[in-house]
Amino acid sequence: MRILVANVNTTESMTEAIAASARSVASPGTEIVGITPRFGADSCEGNFESYLAAIAVMDAILAYPEPYDAVIQAGYGEHGREGLQELLDVPVVDITEAAASTAMYLGHKFSVVTTLDRTVPLIEDRLKLAGLDQRCASVRASGLGVLELESDPVRAVEAIVEQSRRAVDDDHAEVICLGCGGMAELEEQVRAATGVPIVDGVRSAVTIAEGIIRMGLSTSKVRTYAKPREKKIIGWPFKV
């Protein structure tokens, strides 16, 4: 099977890191293809950038020329999953929902540790929309920008470990979800510091997507995610 893993920002090195993380848990025979949008912000840290990324990811996926079996939207708390589900006949898995739903099997409550504080409401809204908020103890910000995860990894580990410890000690979280697609490589260090299961959204999404494909399932098309109605849309798709 082939799974497309779509980065929501335009930073190629982050796409490569996300794809590598996905491959680390993919089953033999599963091909992971990293997708980088051709336009958008180099990091997504707010509503404008998130909505722009939603359009950019849809454009990038529609432009992919080969067959594929599922799509993973690798942006934490980002918009756009619903649009992809309307456009595509294959399963679409969002890493925010994948991480949270996986965490629910591992403990009573989970916390999300993310990047900047301004992204916290976006994640809270995505969890609420997915019906996963009741099991969320907290969403905590490390204070780091997305690109700082690459440029200052030592500080990134310290900040994420600190907020993860607070989530466990103060918020009574029993599981930590890493709230950014670029945090996957920090999983072992955070686990060692907190002693609780650490869930990465990209890896969770891969295992969920593979399971859905093997069961022969995909998005229901009878109502909410039916194909868009035929009508004149000016300038879309951008790939043409």
UniProtKB/TrEMBL annotation:
InterPro entries recorded: Asp/Glu/hydantoin_racemase, Hydantoin_racemase-like, Iso_Racemase_Enz_sf
Superkingdom as given in the UniProt entry: Bacteria
Family statement drawn from the similarity comment of this UniProt entry: Belongs to the HyuE racemase family.
Family annotation (PANTHER family): PROTEIN DCG1
Protein name from the UniProt record: Aspartate/glutamate racemase family protein
